[in-house]
Amino acid sequence: MADEQWSVPKTVQELAAGVNELPSQYLLPEKKNRHGGRLLVAEEMLESIPVIDLSRLPAADEDDKLRAALQSWGLFLVTNHGIESSLMDDVMNASKEFFHQPLEEKQKCSNLVDGKHFQVEGYGNDQIKIQNQTLDWSDRLHLRVGPEKEINLANWPKQPESFRDVLQEYTSRSKRMKHIILGAMARLLELDEEYFISQFSERAPTTVRINHYVPCPRPDLVLGFKAHSDDGVLATLLVDNDVAALQVLRDGVWYDVPTNPRTLLVNVGDFMEIMSNGIFKSPVHRVVANAETERSSLAMFYGLDTEKEIGPAAHLLHENQPARYRKVKIKDYMAGFYEHFARGTRVLDTMKT
Ligand SMILES: O=C(O)CCC(=O)C(=O)O
Ligand SMILES: [Fe+2]
């Protein structure tokens, strides 16, 4: 584990305001920021990321589009998701307002207890898990938003005043959408429609990570968010503008994901890849930095109870289709998750048979 000074980096907002040269902790090793000889630049997409109209499911053509998206990209965009545009705007605006406040106000919900002991919940940077960890050019606010009885409002911002109410409203509206999507995913695999939904006990956590990407004078040398796949069953992403930033890896090639503020993005998470025996892909994605435009995103993660054990659904296994993942307890997955995340590797790969 790193020494104290290394483990308490400044926020990126502070750095961006005061430095001419990027600190070395943020610089990508040369081999990581090159891809096929090009710097962080995505390849042209030959097949676009599908936009699923949730109100049309289970129409056969919409089902086919969804199946193709889940098996290839592992992510898709959704319209008619039942969350009002005004609520999406409100939660995004409150999130941006939070990051625009003075540092002292934001640090009231710092993720460093007593200024040094890291906890996942709160405002700040990622935890430093390994020596020479490359840091991301972004700041985060990480909050547990469910189940209700496990919400710790002491970790939530008090300002802006609307923040708590709009985030709680957005969380409850998102839940309905999550159920529709999980029902459809089970149906596509010919599982009982409740199969995935029933994996969530009343202790299953829902968390939110609000990412704030500050313009970077050398976007060619850093990443806004390092390559990773999401933990949990499913993740949804809301963004504040359509600046090209999010990229997804498919068959070893990076592509830009065309996001925009009113269309939600849904990602398959690692737990879903395991339960679907690899039929649905949990995509590796990253965010590239930008020299001019500030960007914010709000990701919501649907996790499972740490005591729960998951494995490929029995119904999907037969002689010609053996289990591609071993059974794993969620807490064992989580125990390895952050270290792999810090290294830019995937704990999921250690669970393959
Ligand atoms: O900001 C984005 O576009 C992606 C963020 C993300 O991947 C995450 O929070 O897990
Ligand atoms: Fe992610």
UniProtKB/TrEMBL annotation:
Pfam families: 2OG-FeII_Oxy (PF03171), DIOX_N (PF14226). It comes from the Eukaryota. The lineage of its organism: Eukaryota, Viridiplantae, Streptophyta, Embryophyta, Tracheophyta. GO terms for molecular function: metal ion binding; oxidoreductase activity. Signal peptide: none annotated. This is Fe2OG dioxygenase domain-containing protein. Belongs to the iron/ascorbate-dependent oxidoreductase family. Residues 204-304 form the Fe2OG dioxygenase domain. Keywords: Iron, Metal-binding, Oxidoreductase.
